[in-house]
Each structure stands twice: as C-alpha cells, then as structure tokens.
C-alpha cells in the first residue's frame, strides 16, 4: 500500500489547519471571525490510536476546551484581568511558581510581568480615584440649592416656630396608606418625621389622612399612639381587615374571579382620600401623598412650595415628585415614572432617563433643574395641586381625580402613573410635548431605610461620573422598553387584541381583535396581569402573576393562534440588546432548561462566547453536561434531540426565521422578538439591504426568489461546467508544481481559497477572479468576504459595498453591454446568464437588484465555506495514516485500471471511488464550515420537546451542526476520524446497515436541513469531489510541522 502511494507523484509538503466559520450572534447583532491558519497548527504528535484512527478528542477538540468556571461556565481572561486585584499580583510576586502536578508546564508569568501588572492596576485605580474626587468637588450633582430653596431651608432650620416651612400658609392635605404589620412605621422614624413635617407646615395648615388595613394589633396600637400626638385636623382609620368583596373583580382565563393588584392598590390609596369626598368645602392648596418612605422633613416644603417657582417665588405645577432610592445609587420607582414623551426609564441610576426621542427629561436632569419635565412620576412622595382632587361646593370639578386601574385585563399600568394621566391635558402629538406641568425634583430624595437615606447626600456628589455609562448601558440593554401605545392620541380609533370574558367559552373567554377608543394613559402600561392572593400564608407574596395565555384569537371571522406574552410593551426594540435581568430569567418553557447562569438573564454570554472563537467547543461541553437541551440566552435554546430536529427543520412545519404571522395580529409598531442571526447578513444593493436566499426570513419570498433559479443549481446542470472546473484545477497544479520544483513548503490553506474563489467566478461569470494566476488576494476580495461578516464591518458600512460587489457589478455591466451589442446565443451558459433569463421570464420577482443579489450570494457562500471544507478534508486525511494510505490505494488502482482520469470527473468520483466518498463525508462530519446554531422561531402552536419542556411561540431554537454530528448514531467513537463507519461491518446484517446508514443521513447537517438547505450544496460538492482525488493523484502530500528543520 505504501509503495503504491509513493508512485503517485512528487512530494508536496503542506502547511494546513482547518478553520471554522463562526459568525458572532446576539438577538440583534452578528459578526464573524475566521481563524487564521496558524491558530490551529497542531503539535508534531500523531494522535493515532491503536485502530489507526485520528482521535479528535485527544487532539484538537478536548485540548481547546476552556477551563470551567462558576461565572457563565467559562473563564473570561479579559474580565479576570480587568477585575483582578493588585493583592493577587503581590501574592504571585512572593510565591514560587511550580507545577501542581508532575509533567504540567511551569506557569509562564514572570516576575517582571507581575510587577508590571501591579503597576498597571495601581495606575488605573489612581486614575479612577482622582476622577471621582475631581468630579465630587467641582461637579457635584444636585448639591447647590437654588436661591429660593436656600432661603426656605434657612427659615426651616434656624427657627422653631410652627409653620416656619410654609411662608404663605398654604393649606396642605397629607394622605398616606399604610400596611404596618409590626407598628414599626408609626412608632418609628416615619412617624417622627411626619410629626416634624406637620410642625414645619403649621398644624393649622394641615389635614392629615391615614388609612391602614390588615396591620394586626401591633400596627393598630402604634397608629393610635401616633394619632394622639398629631396636633392638626386628621382622619386616621385603621381597618382590621379589608373586605375583598368591596373591591371589583375581573374574570381571568379559567373562569375564576380575582382582584387585580392595581385595582386593590388604587382602592386602598383612595380610602386615604375619602375626607376630600366627605368634606367637599375644605379649602386646600396642595395635596401631599406619602408612601412608607423615610425623608428629611426640611426637604418637603421645598417640594411643595419651591418646585418650578415663578418670579414671585410661587411653585407652579400639577404634580411634583421626589426621587426615591432602593440603595444609595439605585432609583426605585421605575414602574410609575415616564419621561416627557412617555418613554419608560433607563437603567435605575443617574441620570435615570434615556435619550430616546428628544431626551428632554434626561437633558433637564443633566442641567441640574429642580423641575425635570416628565409625564408621570412618584418617588414615594408626590405633591399635587389640590384642585384636581376636589369637587368644591358648589362643584367645580365634576370628576375629581382618583386612583384607578386600567380597563384591559392583560394591560397593566401603575395607579401612580394613571393618576398623572388624569390630571394633565390630553395630548394630540406626544412627540411635540414641551411641558405637562408634572415634574420630578431631584433635590428632594427619599429612601426605604435609614442607611440609604444617610448616604444620599454623599453619593449624589459622584453622579456626574455616571452619565456616559448610563447612556451606553441603555443602548446595550435595549432601554427604554417598546410600548406600542405610547404615542396613541386620546380619542383616536385603534385596533387592539384584548381579552373578552365569556362564561360560555372554555377558559372563560377569548382574545379578540377589536376597535377601541384610545385613552390618555397608553404610555403608562405594559402587557401583563397581577392579581391579589387571597388567604395567603405567612411569608407568601401578596400577589401573583397570571401568565398571558396562549389561545385562539378571534379576528373577524378568522381564528389565529398567538401567544400574547410576546406582544408586550416590553418587547425588545430593534437595537443591540444584551442584558435584561429581571424580565429575562423567568421565560416560560426555557426557564426549566439548564445552561450557564449568565445566559439565563442576558445574551451577553453568547456574545462573549462567540467572540472567543470556540462556540462549538463550549456548546459540546454544555450538552455533555446538561443533555439534549441547553439554554443559551433568555429566549434561546440549543437542541440536540434528533426527533425534535425533525420538527424544527421539517418541511411545512412552520419554523421560520421570523414569526411574521404575529405582525398581522397586533399594532404595526409592535416589535416581535425574532432571530437576528440572518438579517444582519443581508447584502447591500445600491446602498440598501437586500434579502438573499440565505438571509431572507420570509418563507414566501424565499420560495419566490428560489423558484426561478433552482434548476441552475441542480447537479445535472453543474456537470456542464466541469471543463471550466478542470481548467481551474490545471491552473492550481501549475502553481503547486513550482513549490515541488523548489522543494518549498506550500501554505495550502491560501491556495485552496484561491481555487474555490476562481471556480465560483468561472461558474458565475465565465471568468476566474484571477487569484491563482496572481498567487494572492486581488483587490482585497478575500479580506472583504471576512470583513463583511465582522461586527466592525457592519459598523463601518461594510457588507457587499466593497471589492466583491465591485467585481460582481463590473461583470454584470459587461454582460449587459455584451448582450445589447452582440445578442448572440452563448454556447456556454454560466450562472449570470441563467439569472438574466430568470429576470426575463419572471420580471415581477427578479429585478436588477435580485440578479445582483444572486451573484453576490454565489461569491460569498461558494468560496470561503468550500475552502474551509477542503482544508478540513486534507487535514484529517493526512493526519490519519491508515485512511490516507487506503485512499491512495483506491485512487492508484482506479487510475491504473483506467476507471478514472486526471482530473477526476464528478461521475467517476461517485461511481468508482467509494472510500473517497467516505473520507469526505467523515471529514465534513467532524469539521463543518459553519459553527453556529441555525436558528428558527417556534411558531404559534408552540413546541413540545421530547423528554423536555413545552416551548411557547416566539422561542428561538435550533441546532449547531457540530453538536449533531457528534451524536451516538455515528458510533461510540464520534470524536474520531473513522471513514470506515460509512461501510457495512462484518458483524452487521444488510438490514441493520441500511438502518444505521439512514440514521446517519438524517443526522447530517453539513449543508443545513429542511426547506432551507443550502442551494449551493452541489457547487461545493463538485469542487470538492473533483479536487481532492486529483490532488492526491498528482502529488504525494504530507503535512509539514513548524518544528521540522
């Protein structure tokens, strides 16, 4: 066998290493990094087991598995370097580095490196410290009070007479609703601060109304003690138990009647306002509503009487809110707060608001204004103009403002936001609002514990450091959340999918698409439903979430399936969205699928994993640990189960690259979560993204643009191109002969890329690109192919606007000019001819842009991925002595018997070379060109995973071919290169062999699966099956290792 191989041809030494195409994907971004050949250069060990097979697990695959970590399942070197402490560096300086086990390499960190590292950390820490100190001294946030604030504060602090904080003796109604189970509020700091506040405002100027319920004996006792100390008019009510029968209920899916949480809170808050109804003739100027917060009493007069003061020093507002904090940095009440244009809040730290729209609320904060314009706020303490809450005597306000809940069952809005919607004038264009009369006052800050309150005066001095990080974080996280009702104009007719109770139906009702009149409160809400837990046990939450049901939607006379949990006001916007902590973890279905902790709450884990370039390795490790299903993101699941894949990638199963059906059921502005794996790969034609056969997410469009050209990709058509492939092979051999003559090592990776590119140029344009002739990249085309998929390439306006597009556009223009001047039928039709014929036959589908898209798709998909496959086949074949020798023998015997020629034809490779077929299939099983999950979106009916959870509509699922190709259907030694697995074993019956063969075929994802199988599959196979045997017939090939002399 060895002698036969040595007679094949001259020696050609190859430098070779496979690469993998791993575009970086998040829910909205994707890049690609193609590894440089040197990155996978193997050591000179042969890794041949006793059976003569190359063991992948012993060499490449397991050797590159990163060490496990508690953080997101892997070590992140750059993160650990950033967050490492200087103390760790000192320990390394003072310790002796030695291997933990015999034979392990000595750590490479030298003393000089550790010293440099410690110095670097000290410099960084010093810069941060100086920057913080500089900011806190020169640019503190909200520490320098306006003049009228200082005057009032001085009056409050430097005297002790009652009413010193209320210079105009304005009448103030203070309302509070309490749940004080242990009496700690009334008898503690809250009660003390309240009494001091009454003294500051003047007991003669205050009416205090407190409503407390279900607080137990200790709570009632504490409230009675507080009432005895109150010197102003008061109405203090303690109700042992609030009768739920007095609160309106709703009918939820299933038919039961429950109390909405917001309705309960609204009723409780309104009971503190009951004196306003009982005494309509009460003369009031301001209404102050308090939560169970801690505050500085001296701040409250500033909120009441100084916010947005006019020239006379009189406060002008409909409502003015404090800013409440959960800890010294974190803003608390994001649920009820909306900026001037109705956008939800940003990350909960200064400056709190996002730059969406005009970003005027954020600008007001950064400008240090005491009256930050908003549409709603709360902050634990809110001052209102009392006129909106009084009817008067005689009545002047027929419908005084009161707290309420929303009308739609599955559309929740805070009662604290809705009250602001009711006290402001209706808006006709929310994007042109300049002022609502509602303000947030960052000079007045409250907290929920004493420690946080004591720190607020210090932490505000450093807030100037946060602005840039806050803006960056908002863009990464995807804030503000999308709300399709934000811009609704009160009174307009809109279509809405709502739950309509109906006792006659199963489930107690159904979702129906109805026309409704838009209200004034659309900006407050989001999709969801929370209800009160009745008869709750100690320690149990007082409310629970009711899942938005998956059911049939009545739309006119049609029924459509939809999971309305996807149609939410918190759907992700079309922007890079990496982190959504508290909303992502409990996703139904995927929540029960194991995976890295970080991946359960953010797509940042996937971003980092792919950026490190070993996605397939990490995913293999995760599946080995967790089984058939692994959670890779908040709404993403990797599937290894072959039965599930039959459904996911099956024909007419409804698993698309986007859930386009949902958009027909909801507002056009609503954003449905989909997979952005494909959209970012679209080509650019005349500056605009053009969907291709690969990137389009519309199944109907895919079928439409595929149908006119599908026959051009059939193997019967492609075999007509064989003479042109042969010509390219001869050109390649001419170049390789030069390496043989000079006894030089050939970097075959580059030459295979040149070969694949020239072949696709020949097939598409009847003109090779010229890589082989020139021996290097031309006009940066190969670089452009990689850069087109890089994240940086997208940011810099990459895509098909570079060298690839220019070459394609030039060839297209030449062909069009040629047909106009010499309209003679060509004897040889290349792809471009066939695309132009399709344009003529299908003008409604194929236009000039689509022809351009076809050609670009050929260039992009037909060269680089084929080159990767060619490298992998040579790599594994030459690394396995037994396989290479057996293949050489098959080729030599076939050539001597005149059963094949040189170059080998497609027909000969399929009929005369069975071991070649086994070698190629085995190499492509082990090393695919694409190393990421092929994503699909679960359709409306959901997906029941075999031996796994049910996944609702909208979940992103898919399989990574690298993982599927290591299933046990290929044998126990799935990590090894064993071409013999493709043949019948001696102990195997023909029936068993055919059954095993079919199972392997069904588990093969080399070119994808289902209706979206790669249309260029036959092009790639033609290039591979012709070049590999011809190369091994022409030369005696061996791998050169870098340590060889």
CATH A-level architecture of the domain at 170-477: Alpha-Beta Complex
How many DSSP-defined strands?
A: 34
What is the CA-based Rg, rounded? 36 Å
CA-based shape:
elongated
Uncertain regions: pLDDT < 50 for 5+ in a row? 1-9, 17-109, 550-583, 659-680, 791-801
Report the average pLDDT across residues: 78
The helix/strand class is alpha/beta
Taking the sheet with the most strands, its summary is: 9 strands, mixed
Order of adjacent strands in the largest pleated sheet: 7-6-5-10-14-11-16-13-12
Assess the beta-strand content as a share of residues.
Answer: 5-15%
Q: Ends: how far apart?
A: 28 Å
In CATH terms, what is the fold-level topology of the domain at 170-477?
Spore Coat Polysaccharide Biosynthesis Protein SpsA, Chain A
Number of helices: 35
CATH class bucket of the domain at 170-477? Alpha Beta
Helical percentage: 25-40%
Cofactor: heme
Family: Belongs to the cytochrome P450 family.
Transmembrane segments: 120-142
Binding site for heme: 1014
Topology:
Layout: H1 2-6, E1 11-15, E2 21-25, E3 30-34, E4 54-55, H2 60-63, H3 77-83, H4 86-94, H5 111-138, H6 147-157, E5 172-178, H7 189-201, E6 206-213, H8 216-229, E7 233-239, E8 250-251, E9 257-258, H9 261-271, H10 274-278, E10 286-290, H11 299-305, E11 319-325, E12 338-339, H12 360-366, E13 372-376, E14 381-385, E15 411-413, H13 415-423, E16 438-447, H14 450-459, H15 466-477, E17 493-501, E18 509-517, E19 525-527, E20 530-532, E21 543-545, E22 550-555, E23 558-563, H16 581-584, H17 604-611, H18 615-626, E24 629-633, E25 636-639, H19 642-648, E26 683-685, E27 688-690, H20 699-706, H21 715-718, H22 722-741, E28 746-747, H23 748-765, H24 771-774, H25 781-787, H26 791-795, H27 803-821, H28 831-841, H29 848-879, H30 881-896, H31 906-911, H32 914-926, E29 934-937, E30 943-944, E31 950-951, E32 956-959, H33 961-964, E33 976-977, H34 990-1002, H35 1017-1034, E34 1036-1039
Parallel strand pairs: 1-28, 1-34, 5-6, 5-10, 6-7, 11-16, 18-22, 25-32
Antiparallel strand pairs: 2-3, 4-33, 8-9, 10-14, 11-14, 12-13, 13-16, 15-19, 17-18, 20-21, 22-23, 24-25, 26-27, 29-32, 30-31
Helix pairs in contact: 4-5, 22-23, 22-35, 23-29, 27-29, 28-29, 29-32, 29-35
């Amino acid at each position: 066998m060895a002698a036969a191989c040595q007679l094949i041809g001259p020696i050609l030494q190859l430098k070779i290493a496979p690469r993998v195409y791993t575009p970086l994907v998040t829910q909205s971004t994707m890049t690609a990094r193609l590894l440089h050949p040197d990155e996978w250069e193997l050591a000179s060990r042969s890794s041949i087991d006793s059976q003569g097979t190359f063991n992948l697990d012993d060499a490449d695959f397991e050797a590159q598995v990163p060490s496990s970590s508690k953080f997101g399942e892997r070590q992140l070197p750059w993160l650990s370097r950033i967050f490492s402490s200087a103390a760790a560096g000192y320990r390394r300086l003072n310790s002796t580095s030695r291997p933990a086990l015999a034979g392990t390499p000595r750590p490479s960190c030298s003393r000089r490196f550790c010293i440099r590292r410690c110095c670097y950390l000290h410099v960084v820490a010093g810069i941060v410290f100086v920057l913080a100190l500089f900011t806190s001294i020169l640019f503190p946030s909200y520490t320098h009070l306006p003049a009228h604030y200082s005057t009032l504060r001085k009056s409050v602090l430097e005297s002790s007479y009652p009413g010193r904080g209320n210079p105009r003796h304005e009448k103030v109604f203070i309302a509070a609703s309490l749940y004080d189970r242990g009496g700690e509020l009334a008898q503690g700091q809250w009660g003390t601060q309240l009494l001091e506040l009454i003294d500051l405002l003047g007991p003669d100027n205050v009416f205090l109304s407190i409503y407390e319920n279900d607080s137990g004996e200790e709570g009632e006792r504490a409230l009675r003690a507080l009432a005895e100390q109150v010197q102003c008019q008061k109405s203090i009510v303690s109700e042992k138990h609030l009768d739920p029968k007095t609160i309106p209920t709703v009918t939820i899916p299933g038919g039961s009647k429950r109390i909405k949480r917001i309705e309960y809170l609204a009723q409780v808050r309104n009971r503190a306002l009951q004196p306003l109804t009982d005494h309509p003739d009460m003369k009031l100027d301001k209404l102050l509503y308090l939560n169970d917060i801690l505050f500085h009493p001296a701040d409250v007069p500033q909120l009441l009487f100084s916010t947005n003061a006019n020239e006379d020093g009189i406060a002008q507002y409909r409502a003015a809110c404090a800013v409440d904090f959960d800890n010294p940095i974190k803003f608390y009440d994001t649920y009820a707060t909306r900026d001037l244009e109705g956008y939800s809040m940003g990350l909960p730290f200064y400056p709190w608001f996002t730059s969406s729209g005009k970003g005027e609320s954020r600008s007001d904060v950064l400008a240090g204004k005491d009256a930050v314009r908003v549409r709603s706020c709360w902050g634990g303490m809110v001052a209102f103009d009392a006129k909106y809450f009084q009817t008067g005597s005689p009545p002047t306000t027929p419908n005084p403002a009161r707290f309420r809940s929303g009308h739609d069952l599955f559309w929740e809005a805070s009662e604290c936001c809705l009250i602001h919607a009711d006290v402001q004038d209706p808006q006709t264009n929310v994007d042109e609002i300049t002022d609502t009369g509602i303000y947030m006052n960052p000079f007045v800050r409250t907290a929920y514990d004493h420690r946080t309150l004591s720190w607020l005066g210090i932490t505000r001095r450093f807030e100037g450091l946060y602005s840039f990080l806050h803006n960056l974080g908002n863009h990464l996280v995807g804030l503000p959340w999308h709300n399709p009702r934000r811009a609704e104009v009160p009174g307009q007719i809109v279509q809405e999918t709502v739950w309509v109770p109906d006792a006659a139906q199963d489930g107690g009702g159904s979702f129906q698409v109805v026309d409704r009149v838009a209200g004034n409160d659309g900006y407050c809400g989001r999709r969801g439903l929370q209800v009160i837990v009745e008869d709750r046990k100690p320690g149990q939450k007082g409310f629970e979430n009711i899942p938005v049901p998956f059911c049939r939607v009545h739309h006119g006379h049609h029924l459509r399936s939809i999971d309305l949990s996807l149609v939410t006001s918190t759907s992700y916007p079309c922007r890079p969205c990496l982190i959504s902590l508290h909303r992502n973890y409990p996703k139904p279905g995927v929540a029960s699928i194991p995976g890295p902790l970080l991946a359960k709450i953010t797509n940042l884990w996937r971003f980092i994993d792919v950026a490190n370039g070993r996605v397939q390795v990490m995913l293999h490790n995760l599946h080995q640990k967790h089984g058939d299903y692994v959670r890779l993101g908040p709404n993403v699941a990797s599937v290894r189960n072959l039965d599930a894949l039959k459904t996911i990638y099956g024909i007419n199963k409804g698993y698309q690259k986007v859930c386009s059906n949902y958009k027909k059921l909801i507002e056009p502005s609503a954003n449905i979560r989909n997979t952005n794996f494909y959209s970012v790969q679209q080509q650019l034609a005349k500056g605009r993204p053009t969907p291709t056969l690969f990137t389009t997410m519309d199944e109907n469009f895919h079928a439409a643009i595929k149908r006119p050209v599908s026959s051009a990709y059939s193997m019967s058509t492609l075999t007509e191109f064989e003479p042109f492939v042969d010509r390219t092979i001869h050109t390649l051999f001419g170049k390789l002969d030069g390496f043989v003559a000079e006894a030089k090592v050939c970097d075959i990776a580059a030459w295979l890329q040149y070969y694949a590119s020239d072949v696709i140029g020949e097939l598409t344009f009847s003109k090779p690109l010229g890589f082989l002739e020139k021996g290097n990249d031309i006009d940066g085309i190969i670089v452009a192919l990689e850069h087109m998929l890089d994240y940086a390439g997208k940011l810099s306006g990459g895509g098909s606007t570079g060298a690839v597009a220019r070459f394609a556009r030039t060839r297209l223009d030449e062909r069009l000019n040629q047909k106009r001047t010499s309209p003679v039928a060509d004897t040889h039709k290349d792809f471009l001819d066939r695309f132009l014929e399709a344009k003529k036959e299908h003008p409604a589908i194929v236009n000039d842009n689509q022809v351009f898209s076809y050609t670009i798709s050929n260039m992009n998909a037909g060269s680089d991925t084929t080159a990767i496959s060619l490298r992998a086949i040579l790599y594994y074949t030459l690394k396995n002595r037994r396989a290479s020798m057996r293949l050489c023998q098959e080729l030599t015997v076939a050539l001597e018997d005149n059963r094949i020629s040189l170059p080998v034809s497609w027909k000969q490779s399929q009929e005369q070379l069975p071991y070649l077929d086994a070698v190629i299939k085995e190499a492509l099983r082990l090393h695919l060109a694409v190393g990421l999950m092929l994503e699909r979106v679960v359709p409306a009916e959901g997906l029941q995973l075999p031996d796994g959870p049910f996944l609702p509509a909208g979940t992103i699922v898919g399989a990574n071919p690298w993982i599927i190709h290591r299933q046990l259907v290929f044998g126990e030694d799935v990590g090894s290169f064993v071409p013999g697995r493709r043949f019948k074993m001696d102990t195997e019956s023909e029936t068993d062999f055919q059954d095993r063969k079919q199972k392997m075929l069904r588990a093969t994802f080399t070119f994808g699966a289902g209706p979206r199988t790669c249309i260029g599959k036959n092009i790639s196979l033609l290039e591979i099956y012709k070049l590999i045997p011809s190369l091994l017939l022409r030369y005696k090939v061996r791998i050169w290792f870098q340590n060889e002399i």
